[in-house]
Design goal:
membrane, kinase activity, three-stranded mixed β-sheet, alpha+beta, AarF/ABC1/UbiB kinase family protein, transmembrane helix, ABC1_dom
């Protein structure tokens, strides 16, 4: 670790102490590593606010890398408690715009030509300035209006340097902080590393945009910007400029609000169940309202992908929630997740039943999806079940979409609007008109169990083939009998060894002096040695060996 890293760790530690996290730094031994401890006063605001709020302020003060860390964590309800996720969702970039000269230098370095050779005009005032990139309007040499997303100078190097510091701090924290979640601090840093480097690669974002454009080409209600490949690279992304306005429900008529809400819901369902590719952060800032109530989708740095089995599982989960079938919900979540150890499935099911009873009191149209999804993910974390990041990302996207739908058209009955999609998706499998019947619930449980059975049988067959399959039968009486037989065998063996030693000593030393009367002294010594060895080995066996420990433990339990 170099001097620059140590200075950065010191800065982070001072800011952490200012926001009330000084005790954690003390326990982790950070001050000891730095060689001296500074006295830092906790800010008055931090003294009055929650831990989650203080954590957000802490990240915001540390700069771009940590702001992005908070934004990434806000999309991962499987990594942090719901209170932290909700707080970090409000974390916004607050960075100064970089001068136009630096923008020109970045474009020249990325595309290999001077700006005037690529664009007829670049607006000097940025449309947006974020921690990763800055966005400017421009006009191509052919006269087409575009927007240019330009990565900030040296941002990748700064993030890599901060990642090294984060890894060092994570290792220190792991030594002193009890693990309360599924992921360790190092695991969270690794997740952030993957996410931030995907976002730093604009080629990856361009690929996502092309996929969305292909998926939505026949859907007139949604507009996706076109990528200008010849004006794009890993650090510069040039897109078609889309004219539109931010969605403001207060200026729309009731008919317009209803139409926009239906378009948004239609786009969301098609992304999830037809395309398997969905926008991971559809907040109001990433949506524009165009003429004719059409929607334009922006910023494709964070997207989620669902395979066909994942889509089918999602449908099954939605139906199970609608039916308040806690058993199926528990089995589905357990199957899609990766438990750290064998979970208490019965307790998991009972807790889910309590959550469904709380959030589904009457009809599905009155469900608060935000609270329901949050509680289900928190429950999975409680039972140490790793939910795949795609589902966690989907949870965040669903909560954001539902919030916009309710602000646009609060009278909308989401169940009625979603029913045609359910009929389409479940055609040939179930009859959606029987959603409240016992037959549907029975079929749902059978489907869940039928999906689990092949995997379980395959695992058993592979274990048999490789010789790893074993059956253990336990019975308390058999265990006691087995223990007693082992004890008798060991004592008999030790007795035979001692007798052999005694007899051998007499035979070896009987005809030889010294003698004490008619008894050979060496024979007596042999008996004493044999007795001492027998006693020592027996003592070790009873009080130091594996079976002795069991016997002593049982003896102490009886005394208690």
């Amino acid at each position: 670790m170099n001097l620059q890293d140590l200075n950065r760790i010191r800065q982070i530690t001072v800011i952490a102490a200012r926001h009330g996290f000084g005790e954690v730094a003390e326990r982790a031994g950070v001050w000891r590593m730095l060689g001296r401890k500074e006295k830092v006063e906790v800010s008055q605001e931090s003294q009055r606010t929650s831990t989650a709020h203080r954590f957000r302020l802490f990240l915001a003060e540390l700069g771009p890398t940590f702001i992005k860390l908070g934004q990434v964590l806000s999309t991962r309800a499987d990594l942090l408690p719901a209170e932290f996720v909700e707080e970090l969702a409000t974390l916004q970039d607050n960075v100064e715009a970089i001068p136009l000269e630096q923008i020109h230098a970045q474009i020249r370095e990325a595309l290999g030509k001077e700006v005037h050779e690529l664009f007829a005009h670049v607006d000097p005032e940025p449309l947006a300035a974020a921690s990763i990139a800055q966005v400017h309007r421009a006009v191509t040499l052919e006269g087409e209006e575009v927007v240019i997303k330009v990565q900030r100078p040296d941002i990748a190097q700064r993030i890599d340097a901060d990642l090294g510091v984060l890894r060092s701090l994570a290792r220190l924290l792991e030594a002193v902080v009890e693990e309360t979640g599924i992921y360790t601090p190092s695991g969270i840093v690794d997740e952030f590393d993957r996410a931030i480097h995907e976002e730093l690669d604009f080629i990856n974002e361009a690929t996502n945009i092309r996929a969305f454009l292909e998926n939505h080409k026949d859907r007139p209600y949604l507009k996706i910007p076109r990528v200008h490949a010849e004006l794009s690279s890993r650090t510069v992304l040039t897109l078609e400029f889309i004219r539109g306005e931010k969605i403001n429900p207060s200026v729309l008529s009731e008919a317009d609000r209803k139409q926009v809400a239906q378009n948004l819901l239609e786009a969301s369902f098609r992304q999830l169940f037809d395309d398997g590719l969905f926008h991971g952060d559809p907040h109001p800032g990433n949506l524009l309202l165009m003429e004719g109530n059409r929607l334009a989708l922006l910023d494709f740095g964070v997207v989620g992908r669902l395979t066909r089995p994942m889509q089918e599982t999602l449908v099954m989960l939605c139906l199970a929630v609608a039916l308040k079938d806690s058993d199926s919900v528990a089995r589905i979540l357990y199957r899609v997740g990766v438990p750290d150890a064998r979970a208490n499935l019965m307790g998991f099911r009972n807790d889910i039943e309590s959550i469904l009873g709380q959030h589904l009191p009457t009809t599905l149209g009155q469900v608060d999806a935000r609270t329901l999804l949050r509680d289900l993910l928190d429950l999975a974390v409680k039972y140490r079940i790793r939910i795949p990041k795609e589902y966690a990302l989907l949870s965040r996207a669903s909560i954001s979409t539902e919030g916009m739908l309710r602000s646009l058209y609060p009278e909308m009955n989401i169940l009625e609007v979603a029913l045609p999609y359910a009929k389409e998706l479940m055609a040939g499998r179930y009859d959606p008109s029987q959603l409240q019947g016992g037959l549907m619930r029975t079929l749902l449980r059978f489907q869940s169990m039928a999906q689990d059975l092949p995997t379980q049988l395959s695992q058993i067959l592979m274990d048999l083939e490789t010789g790893k399959f074993s059956v253990t039968v336990r019975a308390e009486q058999f265990d006691k009998l087995n223990e007693n037989l082992r004890s008798v065998a060991v004592i008999a063996f030790l007795g035979l060894c001692a007798c052999g030693f005694i007899v051998g000593a007499f035979i070896a030393f009987a005809p030889r002096p010294p003698m004490y009367g008619n008894v050979p002294v060496m024979g007596i010594v042999g008996i004493a040695v044999a007795a001492a060895l027998f006693g020592a080995v027996l003592t070790w066996y009873l009080f130091g060996g594996r079976f002795g420990k069991v016997s002593v433990s049982r003896f102490l339990k009886k005394k208690r």
